[in-house]
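Loading example: each entry is read as two labelled lines plus one structure line.
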Amino acid sequence: MQDLAMQFSEIIVNSLNAESNLITIKIEDSDKKDKIIFEVKDNGRGMSKQFLEKLTDPFQSSRKIRKIGLGTAFFKEMCDLCEGEFKVESELGVGTKVFSYVKKTNIDVPPMGNIPDMMMAMLTNTKETDIEFTYKTDIDTFFFSTKEIKKILGKDVKITNPDILVWIRDYISDGITKCKGGRL
Amino acid sequence: MKSLEDLKKLREEALKKVDMRESDNDYRIVVGMATCGIAAGARPVLNRLVEESAKNNFSCTITQTGCNGMCGYEPIVEIFDKDNNKTTYIHVNADKAWEIINEHVGNGNVLEKYTIEALENK
């Protein structure tokens, strides 16, 4: 996992696979707080207490092929390494909330990576799960919702249409650039 | 700066494009996006596939899947044709993805040299 965008996709993919129909993602990149905060909330199937307790254990996974799952284990390791935190709340049938942050000035924090690319990849899921995405800095906040996009597109054009996906990626990229005060 | 107004125009264009094609989804492209896939570089692959597909108006859908147990071969791109015949491409990177989609989806030819059958025992 070379960058934060890769780490984030791990967590989002888990939500996508949990039969959610709405996923709320928030990334806050703040110099003032000296933190990069990453939060995901879904309304998927949730996890049992027993599962949650061993969440970051690599030898536990909901996967059917084999019982190994490294996603959250890697993520927690990164948060711990970067003076951060990784917290998960979950309730069966209700959904899951992930709260995490890393200390921005910690030397071990990976580069942010390409967030618009990551978001585009996350949108190519067959279930067309709705995603709300917020990117916040000390300067500005950018909000994006697939519901809004779907409303404009109507029934005839799907959000997974490649032209639309590329547009969304550039739209998010513009939004993030604006939040960074025009700097890339 | 892009605005949601642009999206309305894009929608009209997308509708015209779909009309131009004989059918909408001749191919289904699936990219593995589990820990193994992501770590191996599946995201640039998926992105290149989407970009190429948009640029050339290819008749395909692109989706992601989880781990199928062949982590050592990631990034894996599977292409299903209309009759659900599967071709599995392994160790794909963004450049190979470009070649694969143009040859397989664009020209309708399986690109043997990147398939699992060609690379498995090397």
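The helical segments of chain A are 4-16, 49-53, 71-81, 115-123, 146-153, 162-179.
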